[in-house]
Structure to design on (821 residues):
């Protein structure tokens, strides 16, 4: 029975993130538009865009290799699996016992590695610019991310997200300075990893300023749909991760039954709505930074993660 | 040091050229003028051709005089000006492309406007057949370790005009930028030659869509000076009203658009609202949002009624109430200031050499403004300041725009308060004999120059020079040493016209 329940919960979780990801993007766009006194597109527009792209034919450059065609599937699969590992409405997911936070970082790293390769595959200058910038950002974001993982793992005693969420949600953890530092660091990493302002501008049409968009400039049709979908999943993944690590209260503890799961799902939706709103507010109030300021920005995340980890060695109470 | 007036004694002064003299000189005096340009004594206002002659409009900044020297080219060549004075380069290449006149001692023999797509070469000159494909355009070579090229355009990811930018970068730093323009060549020079007045005025108003009032005004003033037509006072004031509304709308749009290129979209949205309110007021007052074809030779096509006045005053009140907050937002957003301050710095010496007009020149210490320097009516009776800064960066160009918006608001108020009554149009009667006129009008980008020759009731030849002729090359200089990701910001802060230079 347990196995079947495990599979069911895991399946619902995978489906939930799959269906919810475009909605979060649509919601953020809507809030940003309202903050700029625009009406903005419908909340469902990202779904329509994806369907439209799936129906369109794929235009490939003559010198595109097999890699270029395979990458959209690889990245999408990797990100979707990673997203399936982050507890949303309930802990104790089946996959959780085989994969932990470090695997999530590795999966996202794999996706990015292949996308960067695909950016350079065609040989256009924009793809190269995009890939080099993306890798520069990644090289700075990943150490910060690992520091955050260490910090959280030291507090919770595990890198398994279900364990961490259960621990923080159920015991009297109290106010921990190191967790606060880790959270700020994770928000910074999330902004950089998801190509949001101030690191990148997801809605720009200026080729020369793009990072993520420049890499995928040559993609079209279903390939582009998969990459866009992957990006939306990744955004949901990071928001879920922040929620799961630092605000897990109300999450359905494994085996608590359907009512607790439903309550957990409602609370989860509420939490990511708040997170999406805050992101939109932040993006409206900030300009994009110069490319060479990004190392300082991400360096701050690394230092915060490091500080959080070190504090735990100084005092168990911090 | 000789002044421009002395030059008139060196040649044959052309009759009925108004308001400043035009002198036909020999090649020695022509070369002397080019040398005076290179020694920064005079400034180049324009350089243009005819099938068998070339003309050069000069400005003497010390005495504030304007003069034109002309050189007949019976052998199809003239001494190169660009060899001595670089700002003339693109104008000179255009003369070669359109008329086939060759500059002697030219430093650059590549075509400029002619992309080999017309089917003919030198369409306004000898019209030679061009069925064989022209050789590929040679970009200037760049050498160095680790540099690579980034080609941008002419088709861009956004909906903007076409232009090709060839960057040579070392990592993210731009080593050199070379522009290639001319993709929207419309052949206005050819269309306007031989056109009647109404048609020519229409064409002039369509050179650059966002400056349609300024172009129409410059054209009308050139016609009126040439034919000595006295325009009714009310029309003169209404024209200034249109020109200031156009300046307001464009500056407001620009400020928002520059901030948007730093991904600060809220400024674009807010300034978009302000721009829209000005455009709607223009629509209510003059029947067209951009006021196209309102200014015509002889006056204006549409009078301003009380409802129009009220609409303009209401729009101004909206702009006045919102502007201070938005300026405060710009000034206090550190992340935005970090992008604009010290980005894309134009050195004052370069602005002076290129005689850069508008916000590009005034943000780099060049205080030239045709409304003040060559004070034409009704600006000689109006109170306004010419803001000048010396920093020359993106931030300075935004501040010049903000200050000019404030000045334009005050100007519109003054014009509405003092608008004289009376006729708005006098049917222009052109004299039988040949006459020529020159006019300089301050558009929102800078001084627009129109020179024309009227003959037998039609416009025999008309030359329209956009301020962007001298601003585009400066953009190439400004971006050097900046990072390539900052180019859109620099570019938007210049906001040069593609259409205006491609003609």
């Amino acid at each position: 029975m347990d196995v079947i329940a495990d599979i069911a919960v895991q399946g619902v979780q995978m489906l939930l993130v799959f269906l919810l990801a475009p909605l979060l993007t649509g919601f953020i766009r809507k809030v940003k538009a309202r903050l700029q006194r625009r009406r903005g597109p419908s909340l469902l527009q990202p779904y329509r865009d994806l369907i439209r792209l799936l129906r369109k034919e794929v235009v490939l450059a003559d010198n595109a290799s097999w890699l270029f065609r395979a990458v959209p599937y690889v990245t999408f699969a990797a990100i979707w699996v990673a997203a399936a590992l982050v507890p949303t409405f309930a802990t104790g997911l089946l996959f959780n016992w085989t994969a932990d936070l470090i695997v999530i970082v590795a999966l996202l790293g794999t996706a990015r590695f292949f996308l960067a390769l695909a950016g350079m595959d065609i040989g256009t200058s924009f793809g190269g610019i995009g890939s080099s910038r993306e890798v520069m950002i990644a090289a700075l974001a990943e150490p910060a991310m690992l520091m955050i993982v260490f910090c959280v793992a030291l507090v919770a005693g595990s890198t398994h997200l279900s364990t961490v969420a259960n621990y923080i949600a159920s015991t009297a953890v109290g106010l921990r300075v190191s967790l606060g530092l880790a959270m700020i660091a994770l928000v910074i990493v999330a902004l950089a990893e998801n190509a949001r302002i101030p690191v990148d501008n997801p809605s720009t049409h200026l080729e020369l300023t793009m990072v993520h968009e420049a890499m995928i400039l040559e993609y079209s049709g279903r390939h582009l749909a998969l990459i866009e979908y992957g990006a939306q999943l990744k955004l949901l993944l990071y928001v879920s991760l922040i929620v799961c690590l630092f605000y897990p209260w109300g999450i359905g503890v494994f085996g608590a039954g359907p009512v607790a799961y439903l309550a957990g799902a409602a609370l989860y939706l509420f939490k990511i709505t708040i997170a999406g709103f805050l992101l939109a507010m932040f993006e409206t109030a900030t300009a994009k930074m110069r490319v060479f300021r990004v190392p300082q920005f991400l360096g701050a995340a690394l230092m915060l993660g490091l500080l959080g980890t070190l504090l735990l060695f100084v005092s168990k109470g911090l | 040091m000789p002044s421009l007036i002395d030059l008139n004694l060196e040649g044959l002064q052309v009759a009925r050229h108004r308001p400043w003299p035009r002198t036909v000189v020999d090649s020695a005096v022509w070369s002397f003028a080019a040398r005076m340009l290179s020694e920064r004594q005079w400034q180049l206002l324009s350089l243009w051709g005819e099938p068998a002659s070339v003309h050069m409009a000069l400005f003497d900044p010390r005495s504030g005089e304007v003069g034109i020297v002309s050189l007949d080219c019976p052998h199809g060549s003239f001494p190169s000006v660009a060899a001595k004075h670089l700002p003339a380069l693109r104008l000179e290449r255009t003369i070669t492309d359109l008329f086939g006149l060759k500059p002697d001692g030219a430093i650059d023999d590549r075509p400029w406007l002619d992309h080999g797509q017309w089917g003919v070469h030198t369409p306004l000159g000898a019209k030679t057949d061009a069925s064989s494909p022209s050789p590929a355009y040679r970009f200037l070579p760049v050498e160095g370790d680790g540099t690579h090229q980034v080609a941008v355009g002419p088709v861009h990811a956004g909906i903007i005009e076409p232009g090709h930018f060839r960057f040579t970068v070392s990592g993210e730093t731009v080593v050199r930028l070379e522009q290639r323009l001319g993709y929207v060549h419309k052949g206005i020079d050819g269309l306007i030659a031989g056109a009647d007045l109404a048609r020519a005025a229409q064409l002039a108003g369509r050179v650059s869509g966002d400056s349609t009032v300024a172009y129409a005004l410059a054209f009308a003033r050139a016609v009126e000076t040439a034919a000595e037509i006295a325009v009714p006072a009310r029309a003169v004031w209404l024209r200034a009203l249109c020109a200031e509304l156009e300046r307001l709308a464009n500056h407001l749009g620009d400020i928002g658009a520059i901030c948007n290129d730093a991904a600060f979209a809220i400024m674009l949205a807010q300034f978009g609202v302000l721009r829209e309110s000005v455009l709607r007021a223009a629509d209510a007052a003059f029947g067209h949002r951009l006021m196209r074809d309102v200014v015509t030779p002889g006056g204006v096509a549409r009078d301003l009624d009380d409802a129009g006045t009220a609409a303009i005053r209401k729009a101004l009140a909206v702009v006045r109430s919102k502007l201070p907050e938005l300026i405060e937002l710009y000034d206090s957003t550190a992340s935005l200031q970090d992008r604009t301050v010290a980005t894309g710095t134009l050195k004052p010496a370069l602005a002076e050499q290129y005689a850069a007009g508008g916000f590009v020149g005034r943000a780099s210490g060049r205080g030239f403004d045709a409304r003040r320097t060559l004070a034409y009516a009704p600006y000689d009776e109006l109170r306004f300041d010419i803001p000048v800064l010396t920093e020359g960066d993106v931030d300075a160009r935004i501040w010049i725009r903000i200050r000019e918006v404030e000045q334009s608001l005050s100007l519109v108020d003054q014009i509405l308060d003092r608008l004289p009554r009376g006729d708005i149009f006098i049917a222009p009667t052109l004299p039988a004999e040949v006459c020529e006129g020159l006019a300089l009008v301050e558009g929102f980008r800078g001084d627009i120059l129109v020179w024309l020759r009227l003959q037998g009731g039609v416009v025999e030849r008309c030359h329209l020079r956009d301020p962007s002729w001298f601003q585009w090359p400066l953009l190439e200089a400004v971006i050097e040493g900046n990072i390539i990701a900052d180019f859109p910001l620099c570019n938007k802060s210049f906001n040069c016209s593609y259409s205006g230079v491609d003609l």
